[in-house]
């Protein structure tokens, strides 16, 4: 446990460095869900984040934004590749939840918002150090959240079923707790490595 983030954000000193990026991407995803935009993958393993975005017509874009570039800058960069729209007025200042019957892309926007808005889950409540390495989705049924475990030298992808989320808070804490509790990754489903780390896949709910 730590009283401070592993690497503080400039915008929010009590948050992890990636928190502003995820909340900005949540705003983009929420505003653009009706247009079919999907933030398919966010990789945080390099010196600069890598964001992969896709549209229903097969168009795609790969961005390498600064972690605190802001939603307007992300929207401007994406507009060259496909349709994108800002979130509803007041998005940044109003609590929102899409509801259990909302479309998957809105639930995914909420999930990104939850992760970015509660980054203390990654440093203040766990006995060992963990790192957010990756977020990826198929945009339909599942989101995989890559969690690095530096002390063990491996990573765990925690799979979240979008159908089960949209209202409950505390998602980040549940993901971290699940990843920390995996004792024998070699006995579980092996996955493509994240950042060169041996990686296994587990569901959020066993």
Biggest sheet details: 8 strands, mixed
Structural class by SSE content = alpha+beta
Number of strands: 8
**Major beta sheet, strand line-up:** 3-2-1-4-5-6-8-7
If you average the pLDDT, what whole number results? 91
Distance between the termini: 25 Å
Number of domains: 1
- Count every helix, treating DSSP H or I runs of 4 or more residues as helices: 4
Poorly predicted runs of 5 or more residues: none
Rg, nearest Å: 16 Å
Strand content: 15-25%
What share of residues is helical? 10-25%
List the secondary-structure elements in sequence, H or E.
Answer: HEEEHHEEEHEE
Morphology: globular
Account of the protein in words:
The chain has one domain (19-203). Helix 1 packs antiparallel against helix 3 (104-117). A hairpin with a 5-residue loop joins strand 2 and strand 3. The longest helix is centred in the N-terminal third of the chain and has 14 residues, at 19-32. The protein has helices at 19-32, 71-78, 104-117, 171-181, and strands at 38-43, 50-54, 60-63, 131-137, 142-149, 154-161, 189-194, 197-203. The model has no long low-confidence stretch (mean pLDDT 91). By secondary structure, the protein is an alpha+beta fold. The radius of gyration is 16 Å and the shape is globular. It has an eight-stranded mixed beta sheet, with helices on one face. The chain is built from four helices and eight strands; from the N terminus they run H-E-E-E-H-H-E-E-E-H-E-E.
């Amino acid at each position: 446990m730590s009283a401070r983030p592993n690497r503080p954000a400039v915008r929010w000193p009590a948050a992890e460095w990636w928190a502003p990026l995820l909340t900005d991407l949540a705003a983009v995803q929420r505003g653009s869900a009706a247009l079919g935009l999907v933030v398919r993958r966010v990789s945080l393993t390099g010196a600069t984040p890598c964001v992969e975005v896709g549209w229903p017509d097969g168009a795609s874009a790969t961005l390498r934004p600064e972690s605190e570039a802001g939603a307007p800058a992300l929207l401007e960069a994406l507009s060259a590749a496909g349709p994108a729209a800002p979130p509803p007025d007041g998005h940044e200042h109003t609590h929102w939840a899409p509801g259990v019957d909302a479309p998957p892309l809105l639930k995914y926007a909420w999930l990104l918002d939850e992760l970015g808005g509660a980054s203390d889950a990654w440093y203040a409540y766990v006995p060992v150090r963990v790192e957010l390495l990756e977020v990826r989705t198929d945009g339909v049924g599942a989101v995989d959240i890559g969690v690095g475990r530096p002390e063990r030298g491996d990573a765990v992808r925690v799979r979240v079923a979008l159908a089960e989320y949209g209202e409950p808070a505390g998602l980040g804490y549940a993901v971290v707790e699940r990843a920390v509790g995996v004792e024998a990754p070699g006995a579980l489903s092996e996955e493509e490595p994240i950042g060169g780390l041996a990686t296994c896949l587990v569901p959020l709910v066993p």
